[in-house]
Design a protein that fits this description.
Layout: H1 14-26, H2 45-48, H3 53-58, E1 60-65, E2 68-69, E3 73-75, E4 81-82, H4 84-96, E5 99-104, H5 110-116, E6 121-127, E7 136-142, E8 145-151, E9 168-172, H6 177-190, E10 197-201, H7 204-213, E11 218-222, H8 223-232, E12 239-247, E13 251-256, H9 262-276, H10 278-285
Parallel strand pairs: 1-5, 9-10, 9-11
Antiparallel strand pairs: 2-3, 3-4, 6-13, 7-13, 8-11, 8-12
Helix pairs in contact: 1-7, 4-9, 4-10
């Protein structure tokens, strides 16, 4: 079973907090290995043999991630990890003969935690990029693209980053979207317009709350998460998505470098789930089939390669 060891969940305000609570308590429920579509799959001893010795000894892969990004990863009413990444982890655990134990962590602390060896992996909302590959390794997990969340009716008229000159845009601290907004802001200035005010937040619910309150004109984050928010918050009457979308590098399973054959073990387990159909079944359960990778896209450090050409 998945256990959340610590709780550092940020509190969103107003209607967004209520909507987020409804989402967390209404989705999927507690996830255990026996509930995974791959539960009947026998352990692949060849893949298990590739795991680091300390993981084989403990039988646990520790996972650090924010648990407030439905449907990718979230906590259920009991505080257990649920969502796409949690169910994929359950399936991979069955194949590898281990369990994945989730610890909630603010995103800004995830990469340092992986580098220091405090945690084994992160999965759910971490993206594979060539820059991050300098300090981490990745097994690619899901298709990713960014969109802008705005108030229903789009009162600020933000349709894309080019239309955000002189306005405030929220981003998750440490996220891939920050350089994208910075570049757009520089283009605003070069065109003689006012720069974009970039506001960083510790969690996605915090940023969404700022949109709902009108403190920022829009919040930029992955489509999978913001589309879910737009459809569920306030019975779909609180938010909408702006028209633009921005292809990103894939979401991935991230972990520290120099860990032997760990990457191949994780890659092999995920490819097994792709090939047996359990991976696609999980994504379909969460109405996210367009986020699925093909077996040949489940790569080690695939960002920057032809498999994910933008």
């Amino acid at each position: 079973m998945f256990f959340v060891k610590t709780h550092q969940r940020s509190l969103a305000i107003g209607m967004v907090a209520l909507a987020a609570s409804a989402v967390l308590t209404g989705c999927a429920g507690s996830t255990s290995a026996t509930e995974s579509p791959s539960a009947s799959v026998s352990v692949h001893e060849d893949l298990k043999a590739m795991l680091p010795e300390e993981i084989k000894k403990s039988g646990v892969i520790s996972v650090a991630t924010p648990l407030n990004n439905p449907p990718a990863i979230m906590a259920d009413a009991s505080g257990h990890a649920s969502g796409i990444a949690a169910e994929v982890a359950a399936g991979m655990g069955n194949i590898l003969g281990v369990k994945f134990e989730f610890t909630e962590s603010a995103f800004a602390g995830v990469i340092p935690g992986l580098q220091s060896g405090k945690f084994d992996v992160s999965m759910g909302v971490i993206g594979d990029t060539p820059e991050r590959q300098k300090v981490l390794d990745f097994v690619d997990l899901m298709v990713n693209k960014s969109v802008l969340l705005v108030q229903k009716g789009n009162p600020e008229g933000v349709t894309d980053l080019e239309s955000a000159c002189g306005k405030s845009i929220g981003v998750l601290a440490g996220s891939l979207q920050i350089p994208k907004v910075q570049k757009a802001s520089e283009a605003c200035v070069a065109a003689g317009k006012s720069p974009i005010q970039i506001n960083e937040y510790a969690s996605t619910p915090d940023g969404q709350a700022q949109v709902a309150s009108g403190r920022v004109a829009a919040y930029i984050a992955p489509y999978l998460i913001l589309n879910h928010t737009a459809k569920t918050a306030g019975n779909s009457e609180t938010f909408e998505l702006a028209s633009a979308s921005y292809p990103e590098n894939p979401w991935a399973i991230g972990f520290g470098k120099d860990r032997g054959q760990f990457a191949k073990a994780l890659q092999g387990a995920l490819q097994t789930m792709v090939e047996d159909g359990s991976y696609a079944a999980i994504l379909s359960k969460y109405e996210s089939p367009d986020a699925a990778l093909t077996a040949d896209q489940v790569l080690i450090n695939g960002a920057g390669t032809a498999a994910f050409a933008k």
